[in-house]
Automatic annotation (TrEMBL):
Domain tRNA (adenine(58)-N(1))-methyltransferase catalytic subunit TRM61 C-terminal: 68-215
Record flagged with keyword tRNA processing: yes
Organism of this sequence: Halorubrum tibetense
Keyword terms of this UniProt record: Methyltransferase, S-adenosyl-L-methionine, Transferase, tRNA processing
GO BP term (any one): tRNA processing
Record's protein name: Methyltransferase domain-containing protein
CDD domains, A to Z: AdoMet_MTases
Entry's Gene Ontology molecular function annotations: methyltransferase activity
Amino acid sequence: MLVHEDREYLLEPGAEFGTDLGVIEVPEDVAAGDTVETHLGTVFEVRELRGPDLFDHLERTGAPMMPRDIGLVLGLTGVSRGDRVLDAGTGTGILAAHLGRVDADVTSYEIDPEFAEVARENMRIAGVDDRVEVRTGDLTAHLDALAADDPLHVLTLDTGDAPAVVERAGALLVSGGYVAVYSPFVEGTREAVRAAREAGLVEIETRETIQREMDFSDRGSRPSTGGVGHTGYLVIARAP
Ligand SMILES: C[S@@+](CC[C@H](N)C(=O)[O-])C[C@H]1O[C@@H](n2cnc3c(N)ncnc32)[C@H](O)[C@@H]1O
């Protein structure tokens, strides 16, 4: 990633890119820590791409999960190196990329073939394409085959039909494994909780994810008046 003051450009080695600060020619052997000068003399720093940069710069398809909600998924499931993780739908792949960045072994399903293509490219840019396999298809059509595979440590769902997958979660997860369902609406969340109960999952907890930013000014400090930062609901449950 190339950075100058508040400008950030995600450019590949060898790329040529025109800006009002001049044309950037990225050397083939570019590395983090280098600087690259435009033909008008503006200096850009080359930085390694980090997690939050993915949200800002990867090509978007399905509405990506926000970094704060990803933090909850990582923290509340304890996903870590070597875990087998099943994710759907891939969408932009922001959650899938973060799962790959903690070195989990991720299979992610995306029903839309064009979205899946973009997500594969996003995984390559994020540097996790060796750990995150994006499969094109409807996850609900593959549950029988997946239940016959090695059991999963974590199942992450961000689709309208997540409850149909939660109903089968017991057959997919190791004992103590986690399912995380993210939903923007109460109705989908309620259905996910019903499915988790019917599936015999335990430790079922639901949270609304709200965050307030703080404003600090000369007059004083207070939560931002920019509105309540609701993004969605997160159901976490565990296989017995
Ligand atoms: C909200 S987006 C997921 C965003 C993703 N979590 C991220 O962080 O970028 C939901 C995606 O799920 C896909 N989808 C919906 N139902 C699906 C299913 N049954 N199987 C696979 N993908 C599905 C949609 O096409 C869409 O791209």
